[in-house]
Amino acid sequence: MQPPTSSRYASKLNVSLAADPARGVEVSEEAAPSDAALTPEQLASDVQRTQEKLAALKREQEHLERRKRELEDLARRQSEVETNTSDLTERLTRALVVLQQQCLDARRRAEQLEQAGGSLQRHLDGLQGIDVSAWSQSDAPRELTRALGLLDAARADYDGVRARLLNDETDPETSPTAAGARGESERTFVGWLQAGFAFTLPLLVVCLLILLALVFRSSSTP
Predict the structure, then answer these.
(1) b or e along 8-30 (b: 16 or more beta carbons within 10 Å of the residue's beta carbon)?
(2) Alpha carbon distance 29, 132 (integer Å)
């Protein structure tokens, strides 16, 4: 007749405990229910520790959110710097090229202005040196020819400089007094022609008398 099932389990448990007494103690302790109740002090301590953990987690969350905002702001500012740097670099490059070209043009124009100014100054000095009243009768034809040559050269150079370098705002020909100035210049030129004719008229008369005398002498000779 076989023993009951409970008897077999009991006999096996006894054999196991006999082989490992410590395991039997552990099993008995785990199997023992926890009948100890938490005291109010322990509950208050647990609540306080939980609140402290929550406060620490909240501070950590705030720190992380603040750090996130700082990183986002840093990324935004870096993007703005990169964009503005690229745009401004391109603009500065174009402006520098334009300024360099303008500097070259300004140097060339300055050289042209300097040359033109020297040429006009020489013509002005030559024209200011003309004094019709100081011409003698014998020197009048030669001085008149020289004066007319100075006038033609000065007019030609002035027209060339005006066309190449002078603007309408700086051109005296477009000023309100231009017509009067041109009329005065024409009157001066006509006056010089009249003065030259007056100086050469006696010479022409003398030459004509000499020619008539020669003709009369040749006709009276047998």
Answers:
(1) eeeeeeeeeeeeeeeeeeeeeee
(2) 145
Q: Which amino acid is at 35?
A: D
**Of the residues 103, 129, 155, the one at which a domain ends:** 129
**What is the distance between the alpha carbons of residues 159 and 55, in angstroms, rounded to a whole number?**
93
* Averaged pLDDT in 10-residue chunks for the chain of 222 residues: 43 45 42 59 89 94 95 94 92 94 92 90 89 82 87 90 73 53 56 64 68 64 55
CA dist 66 and 73 (Å) reads 11
> What local confidence, expressed as pLDDT, does residue 174 receive?
54
Domain span including residue 52: 44-129
Number of H helices, E strands in the chain: 5, 0
